[in-house]
Design goal:
With 286 residues, the protein is an alpha+beta fold. The chain has two domains: 2-98, Arc Repressor Mutant, subunit A (Orthogonal Bundle); 105-281, 2-Layer Sandwich (Beta-Lactamase), CATH 3.30.450.40. It has helices spanning 2-25, 32-39, 43-55, 70-74, 76-82, 100-124, 166-172, 177-188, 197-210, 253-273; strands at 30-31, 61-62, 67-68, 127-134, 137-144, 159-161, 212-216, 223-231, 237-246. The strands form two sheets. It has a six-stranded antiparallel beta sheet. Strands 1-3-2 form a three-stranded antiparallel beta sheet. A hairpin with a 6-residue loop joins strand 7 and strand 8 (223-231). Helix 2 (32-39) packs across helix 3 (43-55) and helix 6 packs antiparallel against helix 10. The longest helix is centred in the middle third of the chain and has 25 residues, at 100-124. The termini are far apart. The relative contact order is 0.10. Mean pLDDT is 74; it is low at 2-10, 62-101 and 281-286.
Amino acid sequence: MAKEKKVGARAGHEKTMQLLEMLADEKQDCSVSALSRRAGISRYKMTGLLASLESKGVVECAVESGQCDEGCAVLLGRKLLEHADRLGPDRSLLESFPRRHNEAMYQAIVVDARPVIESLALQHNEAMYLTILKGDEVLFLDMVDCRWQVKAEPLVGKRFPFFSNAAGKVMRAIDSWDLLEKIAKRWRRGQLRFPDLAGFRAELETIRETGVAVDCGGMGEGIITVAVAVRDYAGKVVGALTMLGPSFRLLGERLEQEIIPSLLLSGELLSMKFGYVGRDGGRGQQ
């Protein structure tokens, strides 16, 4: 009997994974009827499975209307891993989940962020980037350049240690201090020098309070980066809007009164596109 239950549970997990795969492959809103046909199960069972996954926070859908939102598939990889323990003990099934869903998430972020960085670059005439975390590094994912003759070399596709720039600092500011200490130990075994921990902790605490990071010189002499985080519906940081330029243009009143307020507003609006409701909404994580 126990063996039969175990086999049944595994079959249920496999059906769950099949459903999640189908959701992630959809390019538009998909109906419960269409999903049930593809999965080879009844509409009734499909509705129940979707409702169960929705209650566990793995997907978001409107079962009553029979529609599943494409947005749940965009962030599916992250949500699935976050809630892996809720799907049952057979975690090995997760190993078969394709990595392409993370890439789809990044593509979705680029699409939504592109108009924002274009607007900021036009408004401030400074180079704007969309950046994301890749492990302990920051990947410069997309860029809109400025119109000045004096400009930095484009950094799209390049990676830098998170502690060397404003983007990495603002994205790491919400991490636990234990995690950051472990990361620091790893970097100290390498060639690059990690910042003094006490000073770095104080800097990150300030960034957490203000919501903006400013780094001077970490990307090169005379180079300043300014960044704000972009969050998803769960309050998780999925990227950062990052401005990069020379110090003679990004210091003083212009930085404090023009650039920082503009970046903060843009970061908030872009986060809202991903479902983030802000600190007062009770859903964001600080």
